[in-house]
Design brief:
The protein is α+β, with helices and mostly antiparallel strands. The protein has three helices and six strands. It has a single domain, classed as Nuclear Transport Factor 2, Chain: A, CATH 3.10.450. It has a six-stranded mixed sheet. The radius of gyration is 15 Å and the shape is globular.
Length: about 150
């Protein structure tokens, strides 16, 4: 729970890594993760869909991310009004030893309900090429698994 949009932005990036920060406490529902194709994190509508920690499903979708952290490198405000602020950002995912695993840019939109600012939309761009290829492979496997079960 953040009292201003910049704090909410920092919390939402940190929550993408292995952290003690509860993922659910960084977003307002519904929350959209904009992507090309279907991912297991595309849209959270109900409390039951939101993992306690974002890292809870790393073993399923990105095992190499276990123990990694995310850091906000830079950001700038794109547009705002009284209830929403959108930021263009650059961030990095770091391995346990501090080495860079991947980098990405994104447009994160934070919304205000009452006095509480949280993430409402995340649109990630320019993911490091190697990380993006691995993600596509794992998303395809996840989709195949879903089709077999459904």
């Amino acid at each position: 729970m953040a009292s201003n949009p910049e704090e909410a932005l920092k919390d939402s990036v940190e929550a993408l890594g292995t952290t003690s920060k509860l993922y659910r406490e960084t977003l307002h529902l519904p929350m959209h993760h904009i992507s090309v194709g279907i991912t297991p994190i595309a849209f959270y509508v109900d409390e039951e869909n939101v993992p306690k920690y974002f890292a809870d499903f790393y073993s399923e979708i990105r095992p190499e991310w276990i123990g990694s952290t995310c850091t906000l490198e830079s950001y700038s405000e794109v547009v705002k009004d009284d209830e929403k602020v959108a930021y263009l950002l650059k961030a990095s995912r770091l391995d346990k030893d501090g080495s860079v695993m991947s980098t990405f840019e994104g447009i994160f939109t934070l919304g205000k309900i009452g006095q509480d600012w949280r993430l409402i939309s995340r649109n990630i761009f320019n993911v490091s090429k190697e990380s993006k290829l691995k993600q596509r492979e794992l998303i395809d496997k996840w989709n195949e698994k879903g089709q077999e079960q459904g």
